[in-house]
Amino acid sequence: MRFLPLTTEDRRDMLARIGVAGIDDLFADVPKGKLLAEPPNLPKAKGELEVERELGRLAARNTPAGSVPFFVGAGAYRHHVPASVDHLIQRSEFLTSYTPYQPEITQGTLQYLFEFQTQVALLTGMDVANASMYDGSTATAEAVLMAHRLTRRKKAVLSGGLHPQYRAVVDTLSSYSGANVDALDADPKGIEDIVARIDSETSCVVVQYPSVYGSIRDLQPIADAAHAKGALLIAVVTEVVSLGLIKSPGEMGADIVTAEGQSIGNGLIFGGPYVGLFATRDKFVRQMPGRLAGETVDAEGRRGFVLTLSTREQHIRREKATSNICTNSGLCALAFTIHMTLLGDKGLTRLARINHANAVALAEKLDAVDGAEVVTPAFFNEFTLRVRGDAAKVIDKLADKGVLGGVPVSRLVPGKAQLSDLIIVASTEINTDEDRAKYAQALKEVL
Amino acid sequence: MAIEKFSKDHEWVRVEGDIATIGITNHAQEQLGDVVFVEVPEVGRKVSAGEAVAVVESVKAASDVYAPVSGEVTEANADLAANSALVNEDAEGKAWFFKMRLANTAELDALMDRAGYDAFVKESA
Amino acid sequence: MAMNTQGRPPGPGASGKSATDTFTGNSGLDHEQPLLFEVGGTAKTGVDMPEPKAGKARLGGLERKASVGLPGLTEPEALRHYVRLSQRNYAIDAGVYPLGSCTMKHNARLNEKMARLPGFGDIHPLQPQKTVQGAIALMEVLSGYLLELTGMKALTLSPKAGAHGELAGMLCIKAAHEAKGSKRNIVLVPDSAHGTNPATAAFMGYTVRSIPARADGTVAAEAVQAALGPDVAAIMLTNPNTCGLFEPEVAEIARVVHEAGAYFYCDGANFNAIVGKVRPGDLGIDAMHINLHKTFSTPHGGGGPGSGPVVLSDALAPFAPLPYSIREGDKFRLVETEGEVTKGHTPFGRLTAFHGQMGMFVRALTYMLSHGSDGMRQASEDAVLNANYIRAGLRDLMTQPFGDKPCMHEVLFDDAWLKDTGVTTLDFSKAMIDEGFHPMTMYFPLVVHGAMLIEPTESESKQSLDQFIGALRFLAKEAKQGNDKSRFKEAPRLAPRRRLDETKAAREPRLRWRPAVSKEAAE
């Protein structure tokens, strides 16, 4: 067995040294009759080649995004990731290291987390960010709970532009912690009147930007209205590349920004692992969940980094912790920070401009197809398309023609007739003129 | 002269008239190590004995500070928020946490005097 | 005030003489690397892209006016920055990483390769299900393995880490009680539990009632029985427990818990000790999370990502959250929304967007296929053997809080043997760094004074264990007899950094880089 260094002789010597006759003497506390006499009923060990064959067969039954014209978004986006990102995150010293509880020998992790926190704060326009959450959806639910703690209120108002699966996560955690959710109806055009829903019971308003339908709007009036009632604005960003081109939520008065960081440095991977971003104002930092790296000095006065303010966390506060989060998304945060470093301001801005230009070009092309109409007035790299007929069937037929054309809204919000003809379409830098032409052509054929 | 009492939760209470000043003991401060953060209660909050009303954090531990007696918070020590190290420097003096108007002076009888507290600390060591 | 006096003492420790007196501050292969914000610039980039197409913007007037201010690096500079940072990290691949309860076992690189196959790594969670049949099939295969290994009836794959899995399992329990119209509000948690257990219970609004451990470090069914009542919803118990011991009365505990109408949640963080040896389902457990990043070797990555599937008993199976996969003939389907829920299912809700940590599912399954049932069983046995071998190698010098008896995959020492030496658990741990080892888990579990929890895993060879034991014996003797305590008080002396000032970090939090403000400008 290539993974187990002990030889049969080693095992015998070691048992003798311990002073027991056999291995099962070490399992003596297992209740009578509960120790298995035989290995479980599963296949025996395999070599690398056999395992590769077996998994290769399963992988071959999927259609990789890179193999077709690809326009699927709605919370996860396919971007080009520079080759050096994956090389670096696979270095043993990053990949096979634990949470940096021994700072003297994990300065590498601690320094990149400190840099990551700074990048996230700059990108979102906030004061401070944590060292990552599981993903955007869980970060958002945690933000709502944080707002409840800060305001001592228990009602969250959720925009109809919030990703329905994010809403479901907020709903689930709220219902079991005794909090209320006031969720607005699905809002593909970005025209809802959310301000009217804010009252003196409201702890926070949660607005996705750009929305799950792709639309963008000024958050300042919502922030002002929320603040006037003593509530907080939580802005949710699922496509962080957008922040290279449009105003940051921080600039428009957000109190907490949560985001899905997958777009930078991380692949699609069928939904995970991704990396949740969480940023807020300095004054709220003690109610922020998750780990934080902070700067200090060592015994010789040299700059160094440690995990800090950890009394907020579960391993110390136990039942009084701000959250039960422990493991976060360290390696995905590393991929994010390396990619962001490679981009810099210059690269991020250009990447964002290419994304927007590609989406505008696609919108124009699809809008011209008979039976299709772009319904999103202002957007970044994603918009909603109304098609003649049932959107899910259209997407299905497009897939048969080798085009992955987006997400039918009915997949996220089933059973609503007024949403059944809508498709969320994303276009990033990976799409070419040829991809767009193929999409338009295929759409013409299936409508 | 002020009455001085101590709780099993390592807090001291100094009573003058119907106003009690509350802080953590020097022994507690030593056990906690370097205090890095203190959160004091809002003025006007009505609390009952045993309720968690303040928080004191060191690098290694976060601890609740309980109201040793019932009453209404009349004043909180703003200096502590800015300078938590004060707790290590002068736990039983300048680093008082909050003051409250006693609701029931009889509750003081349940607390220890200094000799009693010293014995309690010795015993639990 | 409630005091925790068991925690780790902070402070930078003694400084002694400086290890590095070079001009650069570098020390041979170890380099000082400035912050990205000090070496990078907003004019630099490591990514070349074409000019975007000209066209009218449709941004609704929301263009960003100010620059973001993110510094960039060219590719060679970025490589150097991150390679230098990496060289300041300890890693499993570099040495013994005996962190108790964390399971730092070998991470096979085939797992990484498989997760990066385009058929797994480059598929979108919301592309049509007919284009991802192989991915859903993989989730089904993984589920089959996990159910066989645990002897449980159902599972949910979506939780993102162990603590998230705890939440999933406990939400199933809450939902099951609610379905019966019961409003139980107390959860029993032993003192020795992981911090996530009480944090999870409290997060859901439960009142936590703690159960003391016996003098031998385990939980008595009698103590559980005494704490049970009509208000108790569940017990959360780690088995093998955080002291490295198999709970001998676990089956009896399950019986009394069920008799009282409560459920048994098992923290499966230490499942790696018993895979292929004992099935939690045979012990009467109702829910248990499995840390794929511990037991099934998906890499820890400096603190995640993890993955925490939860296996469930028949009683809890209907309440598993969305999404779940089902097989329909030769096709697989993911049920994603309330509207599609199939018969017999009443999900408590949803814990995350999408379907869970696919990247970790692939890695874990690769581990399982590679090891096979024989290899997984052997791995558990070797993990337990290695821990006991360390116990045998150190038992005459170091003290065990519960006496010298067999442990599972990790061995627990306390600091009684250091009494009057002036050396603390922390000092001892830091001295291990100078010897080239990562310290063990220290000051956990909290129920043991100055705890040192050592988990070698099955990945260490006998030679490596002998060297580790030899080094610890040397240090233990030095601590007891040595006149020069600087080896401990000043440790580590040979790491990239000496002890760090955690008090300063917490009193004056600096959580991000900010440009230095010149004195004149500030005034």
Structure write-up:
By secondary structure, chain A is α/β, with parallel strands linked by helices. In chain A, 36% of the residues lie in helices and 13% in strands. The radius of gyration of chain A is 25 Å and the shape is globular. Chain B has four helices and nine strands, in the order E-E-E-H-E-E-E-E-E-H-H-E-H. Chain C is of the alpha/beta class and 523 residues long. Chain C has helices at residues 36-39, 75-86, 109-115, 118-121, 133-150, 162-179, 196-203, 221-227, 250-259, 358-394, 425-434, 462-481, 486-489, 502-507, 519-522, and strands at 154-156, 186-190, 207-211, 232-238, 263-267, 287-289, 310-312, 324-328, 331-335, 411-413, 441-442, 452-454. The chains are: A alpha/beta (447), B alpha+beta (125), C alpha/beta (523). Chains in contact: A-B, A-C, B-C. At the A-C interface, helix 1, helix 2, helix 3, helix 4 and helix 5 of A face helix 2, helix 3, helix 4, helix 5 and helix 6 of C.
Outline the secondary-structure elements:
The complex is a heterotrimer of chains A (447), B (125) and C (523).
Chain A: H1 8-18, H2 48-59, H3 83-89, H4 92-95, H5 107-124, E1 128-129, H6 136-151, E2 155-158, H7 164-176, E3 180-183, E4 202-208, H8 220-228, E5 232-237, E6 256-260, E7 276-280, E8 293-297, E9 303-307, H9 314-317, H10 330-367, E10 372-374, E11 382-387, H11 391-400, E12 407-408, H12 409-412, E13 422-426, H13 433-446
Parallel strand pairs in A: 2-3, 2-4, 4-5, 5-6
Antiparallel strand pairs in A: 1-7, 6-7, 8-9, 10-11, 11-13, 12-13
Helix pairs in contact in A: 3-10, 5-10, 6-7, 10-13
Chain B: E1 3-6, E2 11-16, E3 19-24, H1 26-32, E4 35-39, E5 46-47, E6 52-58, E7 62-66, E8 71-76, H2 78-82, H3 86-89, E9 98-102, H4 114-124
Antiparallel strand pairs in B: 1-2, 2-3, 3-9, 4-6, 5-8, 6-7, 8-9
Chain C: H1 36-39, H2 75-86, H3 109-115, H4 118-121, H5 133-150, E1 154-156, H6 162-179, E2 186-190, H7 196-203, E3 207-211, H8 221-227, E4 232-238, H9 250-259, E5 263-267, E6 287-289, E7 310-312, E8 324-328, E9 331-335, H10 358-394, E10 411-413, H11 425-434, E11 441-442, E12 452-454, H12 462-481, H13 486-489, H14 502-507, H15 519-522
Parallel strand pairs in C: 2-3, 2-4, 4-5, 5-6
Antiparallel strand pairs in C: 1-7, 6-7, 8-9, 10-12, 11-12
Helix pairs in contact in C: 3-10, 5-10, 6-7, 8-9, 10-12
